[in-house]
Structures are given as structure tokens and as C-alpha cells.
Amino acid sequence: MFQGRLLHIYAIIFLDVIVGSIIGPVLPQFVRGHSNPQLWLALGTALFLGVQLVSAPLLGKLSDGYGRKPIFRLSAVGTFLADCLLLPVRLGSQLANRFSDGLTNGLYATVRSAITDISPTDQLFKNLGIEGAIISLGFVIGPAIAGLLITVLDLTDPVEQARYVVTMAVGLSGLNVLLSFLLRETHPNPGSVSREALKTAIVQSLNVSTMLARLRQKDRDHPGLLNLVLTQVALTGAIGYYNYFVAYVSLGPLQMGTKDISYFFMYFGGLSVAISYGFFGFLADRINQRRAIYWLALVGVPVLAAYGVVGTSRLWLYVIITIDCLTYSLIQGLIEGLMAQKTTDTDRGEIFGLNQAMQGLASFGTTLVFGLLSIVDLRLPFAWFAACLGVVAWLVRQNKDEPKTEVVN
């Protein structure tokens, strides 16, 4: 029963990532013809992430009170409706989609809560690591479907390519609605949430200082939690390059088209799946996780910076992405595993929701930064991403009181 529910959750994640990644290669078509197209793409991302500052803590609180299943359903329906908005291939549609999808995008805080709900302690790192591998696999399959669809139908007009790919995304998101409605509840004892508690969650999400105060309160109950959240905030600033990458490779010196972008993400995702599965399946629970985060971040700083100097060489781009998969791409799963250990059945959704809101704030800020830097020079954002990764290493280094229970033999 445990394995069946876990596989069901993995299937929902897999489809959700495919739906999000399948449209990545065609997003530049929504901003073509506009001045500073990279800035418009950044604005769309900022809208998507900014709305989550309110939605993520609220949905996390609701999942603690009413269960994970209703949030899965709400997120799936929200994604389906948001994807329908993309059918007219124009800038306004893309911005409307980003805003709408952000309203119900509390899925991943709820996903991590649900996986933690049903995972034995000795399998927690493995199960969350597999979640990361599935997300990577989705990033392979999504662009692959887009590239295959364009190739098989011999679509040459960029707008027509985008229209067909979006139609496929709508169909897949509809399938995910069905899967979400069939999911069984994972929360051991959902109850209810008072209206006052919901109001408090909304107020806290609108005020960074109150979110930090709430996290400090949680840190007293779960020592080390706040440091993990701040570390993930810094990591979010670094991996903001995921949102910038399509604009960089399509509008910069590499001048990659839809098919080239699809093939690139297929390689990136496929390699990430293999490395993540091996790392989290066999190593992550046998090592000192904090020390691993430190060294992976430290080695990853020059790797991130190297993207900005790749020039027109696609060979070097593939070399860099290979090292990327072996270093800081593994950090997210390690932080999530450590954080999951610092939650309980009563506050798991709230903690993951607050964490997602803080990530949303970091993503919103880093999106504005890389959008402005890209106007000056398309290479400059990678200096910012590398600096954020350096902060990850510094934060982990500051936490010297490291519980020995984090290493599981």
C-alpha cells in the first residue's frame, strides 16, 4: 500500500514536470518581435514566482488541516486552466499563464509533505532523492516530446510549433487532473483549519519579517531548520539559471533553435536522472550530508560562472552541463532530506509551505536581478548565479553544530 501511493505521487510529479518542461523550448516564440525579449521572459517567471509568495504558505497550511489530496487536485486543475491560456501564442497569453499557474502552484511543498508522511525514516533520503530523479526525467521527456512532435509533423513555422506543443501540454495536464483525483490521502490525521489561522498564514506570506519570525519559532522546535531554509534560499538564487537558460541559449551567441534546445534538455535531464538515482539511492544516506553540500557548492561556483564564457561552443556547453549534474544539481535533494527530518505530522505542510514561499521570494528577486543584468550583457547573470552558490557554501560552513544523527549507516 505504501509503495502504491508513493508510485502514484511519483506519476503525478512526472506528468506535472513534463507539462511544465514541454513548453520551455517554445517560450521564446511568445516574446519574439518585442524589444528586450529576455526581459519579458524574466517578467513572466517573476509573475509566476511572485504569486507563490501568497499561495505556497496558504496551500501548505491547508494541506496540514484538510489533507494533501485536496491540494493535489487544486494544483492539477489550476495548471490545466493556466495551460489553456497559452493557446493564443502571444505575450499577453504567456503573462496570464504565469500569473494563473502561480496561484495554485503549491504542489511541490505538498508533494514533499506527502512523501515524508508515508516514508519510513530510513527511506526518506532515498524517496526524496527519487523525487528529484523523476523531476529530472520529466525535464528529459518534456523537451523530447516537443522535439518529436515538431519533427514528426514537420512543423517549420515557429508560431505553429508553439501552438501544437501547447495543445499537447493541455492534454497532458488534463490527464494529471484525473490522476490527482484518484490519489489516496497520505496525511495520518487531517483535521481542519480555522479562518483565523488562514488569515494569519496570508498575512505572514505578505510580510517577509513575519515569515522569518515564524521560521525562527519553528527553529526553536526543530533546531537547524532556519539555517536549512536560508541555505535553500541561496541555492534558489543560484539555480535561477534554469529559468534564464532558454533565453540565454536562444537569444545569445549560441543561437539555439527549438529542436536544439529540446536535444540539450534531453541530455541534461537524462544525465541528471542517472546521477541522481545512483547518488540518492546508494550514497546520500551514508555520507555527511552537510559536508557534501559544502563541497558540491564550492566546486560548483566556477562551473556556474563558466556558462557565461562558453561563447558559441556547444561542445563546451555540454561539458559544463555534465560537470553541473555531478555537483550542485545534487544539493537540492540533500537539503530537502535534511529539512524533512525536522518536521512532524502536525506542521509538515506549513514548514514546506513557508520554505516554498521563501524560495518563491528568492526566485522572484533573482529573476529581477538576472533580467536587469541581461539587458547590460547576456553573460552577466551567471556571475550572480555563481555568487549565490558561494553563499550556499558559506551558510553551510557557518552551521558547525552538526547533529551526528544526520549520517545514517
From TrEMBL:
Name of protein: MFS transporter
Membrane topology: Multi-pass membrane protein
Main location as per UniProt: membrane
Keyword Membrane attached: yes
GO molecular function: transmembrane transporter activity
Cellular component aspect of the GO annotation: membrane
Residue ranges annotated for the Major facilitator superfamily (MFS) profile domain, each copy included: 5-401
Function: Resistance to tetracycline by an active tetracycline efflux. This is an energy-dependent process that decreases the accumulation of the antibiotic in whole cells. This protein functions as a metal-tetracycline/H(+) antiporter.
Transmembrane is among the record's keywords: yes
Pfam families found in the cross-reference section: MFS_1
Membrane-spanning parts: 6-27, 39-59, 133-152, 164-183, 224-244, 264-285, 292-310, 316-339, 351-372, 378-396
UniProt keywords, alphabetically: Membrane, Transmembrane, Transmembrane helix, Transport
